[in-house]
Design a protein that fits this description.
single chain, 253 residues, alpha+beta, Arc Repressor Mutant, subunit A, four-stranded antiparallel β-sheet, elongated, disordered N terminus, binds zinc ion
């Protein structure tokens, strides 16, 4: 007998057993009865075809999808044109997470990868009926979490597509933004682990940045010599990540 991984087994159980409330989506089924009753008039169960776009990065979130036995792909478009999968979702999840954080613009694109059934509700009705108002501090933290998720998606895509030297420069720019000083310690092992490349690749990439005059590197210490040169060496993800970082910083001010 083939034993599926734990996550997969859970999903299979979900699609085989309808919950007490009759909804096959875990989260929908787990809603408190009064909240489920408020949402019920706006929910439509239907078939979804493959490649149906549920949310488009940069566009308003129109609907919230509760997958039953369909599977969605969450993809991140890169400024350079590539699109990379950063996550997938089935009956365990819902799309349009951004609205939980008070944002109605999608950070990522969600498409139906495997066709099947699901329930869908207009995002505005979902927000009005389910996303209850909370304290300001709580709301702020949620917005941060949302921004962080957007960054995670961007980085995942970057790591899958962009060359190591550009990613190293991008990473150094981001680190430089946060440490707010010209010199900081960094080992080859740490950077190669983060970027998912061999140590030798990092050595080569760092040598390129050094010969371009962007950084100096000595005994585990990086010195940013020319910030503009470093930014020029970074991939096109950096401006996107910088903007998201600025958003996160702005939340607490
Ligand atoms: Zn990149």
């Amino acid at each position: 007998m083939v034993v599926p991984p734990p996550g997969l087994r859970k999903t299979v159980i979900v699609s085989e057993q309808r919950s007490e409330s009759g909804y096959e989506n875990r989260l929908l089924a787990a809603l408190p009865p009064d909240e489920a009753a408020r949402l019920a008039p706006y929910l439509v169960e239907r078939e979804f075809r493959a490649a149906e776009v549920v949310a488009q990065a940069g566009e308003p979130i129109e609907v919230i999808l509760f997958p039953y036995d369909l599977v969605t792909s969450t993809v991140t478009p890169l400024p350079s044109g590539e699109v990379v999968e950063v996550g997938l979702m089935g009956a365990e999840g819902i799309t349009g997470l951004d609205v939980l954080y008070g944002q109605n613009i999608a950070h990522t694109t969600v498409i139906v990868q495997i066709p099947g059934r699901g329930a869908v509700t207009p995002a505005a009705d979902f927000v009005r009926e389910i996303v209850a108002p909370a304290g300001r501090g709580h709301a702020m933290l949620l917005r941060y979490a949302n921004t962080f998720m957007a960054m995670v998606a961007q980085v995942a895509a970057c790591n899958a597509v962009h060359p190591a030297d550009q990613r190293l420069a991008r990473w150094l720019c981001m680190a430089h933004d946060r440490v707010r000083r010209e010199r900081f310690s960094l080992t080859h092992e740490y950077v190669s682990m983060m970027l998912g490349v061999r140590r030798a690749t990092i050595t080569t990439s760092a040598a390129m940045l050094r010969s371009a005059g962007a950084i100096d590197y000595h005994r585990g210490n990086v010195t940013v010599l020319d910030r503009h040169a470093l930014e020029r060496a970074a991939c096109s993800c950096y401006p996107v990540l910088r903007k998201l970082g600025d958003e996160a910083y702005g939340l607490a001010s």
